[in-house]
UniProtKB/TrEMBL annotation:
Active site: 10, 87
Gene from which this protein is expressed: gpm1
InterPro entries documented for this protein: His_Pase_superF_clade-1, His_PPase_superfam, Phosphoglycerate_Mutase
Protein name: Histidine phosphatase family protein
GO MF, one example: fructose-2,6-bisphosphate 2-phosphatase activity
Amino acid sequence: MATEIYFVRHGETMFNQLNKVQGWCDSPLTVKGINDLKITARALSQVHFDNMYSSDLKRAIDTVHLMKDANQVSEIGKIKKLPEFREVFFGSFEGDDIEDTWRQVALAAGVGPQTDVTKIINQVGIYEFREATKKADPRHLAENKKELDERMVRAINVLHELTKNEKRVLLVSHGDFLKTLAIKYWNQSDGLHDINFPNNGSVTRGILREDGNFEIIDYNINAEDM
């Protein structure tokens, strides 16, 4: 049985608002973030889900509970937290200014003091971008492409085992993780260049087939437009 996955990006957080790098570190949802999520939750309130899941980071957990509380047609029990769907890990850059971070990554990638992450990725490709992030990190803790790719594959395998008897589920994850997932599994991506960053509260829809094959069929959609 194929399973339809509704991935929702968490709502805006304080670090999003302050333009800080936010991977495995966490910050609370803002008032705007909560209000935006209420719009998404209301738009999905009549969609039946067999289960709901989230990353194990608090901003994702808070988001999934908003989705659960607003849904009028699903009976969801305890939310299972999946660390495999955490945000990308940025190592020593966690909590730093985003533009300063990309400037250091760009220098490590050999493209000059660039702060536009899309331009950096499109010049060197997503693989070299991740390698440059790890290289630029003073402690070299940031996830490179191999580490992140292995985690994405593991995440899909974990989800496949959990959802074998579920037709439709909702899973709250994170912007860079969902973008990287789409670069890998969406047929409108070439697997190398950048794509639009998903909006807070947006929906990305995937199909997880009985044999474990996974594909993304809708990316970064406003829930009200679905």
